[in-house]
Amino acid sequence: MPLRLRGSRFAPLATTASTAILALILVVACGGADKQDVLDEAPGATSGTSSTSTSSSSSTGGASSSGASSTGGIDAGGTSSGGPSCDREKEPNDNQGSANTLVTSLCGTITSAGDVDFLTFTLPSSAKGVNLGFSGSVVLRVSVDGANAVTLKAGSTQPIPFVKGRPYLVEIRAEAKADWKVTLNIQ
């Protein structure tokens, strides 16, 4: 029969112990991985962040990791709410051949359900991780040669591939007119 601690003075200790055991399981499960894929996003949110990193350790115990947070909505001026200025997309960027280069962040607008915007970036050989965040009522399809394409939307948990030296293509779509912001952070 399980031990019931609810309502007792030991309940907080049981919760802390459960959390510690869960953390230990995650460390053991992911400790030997060469790749670590993560997507952080609140369910139902209209923004998202997908991060991928490789982890390596040395004899000193050092490791690399990545993490990011997403921004709020986009205003017509191309800035995130309460945040710094955002460079606007350059039209035309409606096909793969005219994709805008994503360096740090770009803002844009899907003008109708049939409109598509494309962005591109390449991870340098020195990259240890990548975070791709977005906001707006849009869906992103991220592809890179040598890996399966992934679709990112608010509330999804799909990580993006981590491939150095090959161009990524980010396709942005929406069901109706929508402002968007995509942010890239390479570690």
Key attributes of the depicted protein:
33% strand; single chain; globular; five-stranded mixed β-sheet; 187 residues; mainly beta
For the residues shown, what is the average pLDDT?
Answer: 71
Tell me roughly what share of residues is in helical segments. Answer: 10-25%
Helix and strand succession? HEEEEEEEEEEE
Shape: globular
Strand content: 25-35%
* Terminal CA distance: 49 Å
Q: List segments where confidence is low: pLDDT < 50 over at least 5 consecutive residues.
A: 13-46, 54-82
Q: Quick one: biggest sheet?
A: 6 strands, mixed
Strand order of the largest sheet: 1-2-7-11-5-3
Q: What is the number of beta strands?
A: 11
Rounded to an integer in angstroms, the radius of gyration calculated over CA atoms is: 20 Å
The chain-level structural class is: mainly beta
Number of helices: 1
